[in-house]
Amino acid sequence: MTVKERYESAKEVYKAIGVDTDAALEALKKIPISMHCWQGDDVIGFDGAGALSGGIQATGNYPGRARNPEELMADIDKALSLIPGKHRINLHASYAVFEEGEWVDRDKLEPKHFAKWVEFAKERGIGIDFNPTLFSHEKAENATLSSEIPEIRSFWIDHVKACIRISEYFAKEQGTPCTMNIWIPDGFKDIPADRTSPRARLKDSLDQILSMDYDKTKVLVAVESKVFGIGVESCTVGSHEFYMNYASKNDILCLLDSGHYHPTEVVSDKISSMLLFFDQVALHVTRPVRWDSDHVVLFDDETKEIAKEIIRGGADRVLLALDFFDASINRLSAWVVGMRNMQKALLNALLLPNETLAQLQASRRFTEQMMLQEELKLYPIGDVWNYFCELNGVPAKEDWFKEILSYEKEVLLNRK
Ligand SMILES: C[C@H](O)[C@H](O)[C@@H](O)C(=O)CO
Ligand SMILES: [Mn+2]
Q1: How far apart are CA 163 and CA 172, in angstroms?
Q2: Ligand closest in space to the Cα of 135
Q3: Of 225, 301, 337, 342, which residue has the fewest beta carbons closer than 10 angstroms?
Q4: Per-domain residue ranges of the chain
Q5: Cβ neighbours of residue 116 under 8 Å, at least 6 residues apart?
Q6: N- to C-terminal Cα separation, the chain
């Protein structure tokens, strides 16, 4: 049977439970995922400002890490060619592209340092999202926006302001808003004596940043909380409560990273609450293994549950990005697996009879609800997925992997 014939057969199976597979594929095609550039080079960046810091870690030494903008762009291109649909790319400020012999510190970054990325994105018709980089820098050794040292705090305030200007430039050039997400590593290894002062300084820094004049329809500022990081186990200044309150009072976005909560807490359970109080919510989907380990996103239960909440809450209300970095495997394969898995999870959610399931819950027919949810797990989603790949001109099933192998042989292994 061909992929199309299998799809036609699956379509009938779904039709019997009231699910329109054609509509699901149309909807899936319209959901962009912001693919993080930092999986390609183990979060190193190009500004040479410092080794990876901030309590995050890329482990492994698989050959072929992208070492410069050309290599990273080529790798992103290859990965995107194996992922169905049109997506976005997510950059960090540390990925500024300088002219030969040029260098400026992070507080002096300008749109021109990202012109190459705009050129890259425009040629491919994709949008760009952005992140100030408040780690891997000598001035980030202790604290950034919450620093007790006025010059350090001003430096980072200026950096984030510069990033807002760069985000505005991206948005203007690409014609779609740019999500600009702020994450800082500030915190304390051991029990602090004063939790309030650092948080008050962080609040003041954000106030100063947001007081600048910028187009709020073009730059969607988000703040990303975290429960702990390596070296800051006892207290994170930018905690969930801090940022949720700050975002709500200041009309900016909260970004929920699925690795940034207590191990038994799940982001899938938070999305509906956020969407009742905010117009939109931003996500970093990742896979924490025992800690915020940033493993590649799998087609696992929590990813599926997050996707259900995105579809049920309205995909246009969720700014979806991925955030993992695994240096122990082929980095392009990591991107492709993670992106395709996020899409499979979204497809899975789109293929559910969501109305029927909600009605079963509303009438408290939980026995039937459980039965149906379990039976649906074995419905022929694979046939629908393969057809989606074919429709979008990318290899179905595992067929994309041979492209990775030849790219590894011809390109990655030559990066000595
Ligand atoms: C590199 C990212 O910005 C970073 O991973 C941040 O988003 C995060 O999740 C830190 O744990
Ligand atoms: Mn994150």
Answers
A1: 14
A2: 1
A3: 301
A4: 31-351
A5: 69, 73, 97
A6: 45
Catalytic positions: 183, 224, 226, 257, 260, 284, 292, 294, 323
H-helix or E-strand spanning residue 311 = helix 301-313
Tell me the per-residue pLDDT of 106-148, one tens digit each, with 9 for 90 and over.
Answer: 999 999 999 999 999 999 999 999 999 999 999 999 999 999 9
Contact 214, 164 (CB under 8 A): yes
94 and 53 in contact (C-beta within 8 Å)? no
Contact between 339 and 33 (Cβ < 8 Å): yes
Ligand nearest to the CA of 41: 1
DSSP state of 169: H
Residue 297's contacts (CB-CB under 8 Å, 6 or more residues apart) are 285, 286, 287, 303, 322, 324, 337, 338, 341, 342
CB neighbour class for 34 (10 Å; exposed up to 12, middle 13-18, buried from 19)? buried
Give, for ligand 1, the residue of 284, 287, 294, 297 to mutate: max count of ligand atoms closer than 8 Å to Cβ: 284
Q: What's the CATH code, domain 31-351?
A: 3.20.20.150
The pTM is what? Answer: 0.98
Q: Please report which helix (H) or strand (E) contains residue 292, including its range.
A: strand 291-295
Longest distance between any two alpha carbons in the chain, whole Å: 68
Residues 6+ apart with CB under 8 A from 276: none
Q: β-strand 34-36 against 88-92: which pairing, if any?
A: parallel
Note the ipTM here.
0.98
Backbone angles phi, psi at 363, to 5 degrees: -95, 15
The type of residue at 92 is: H
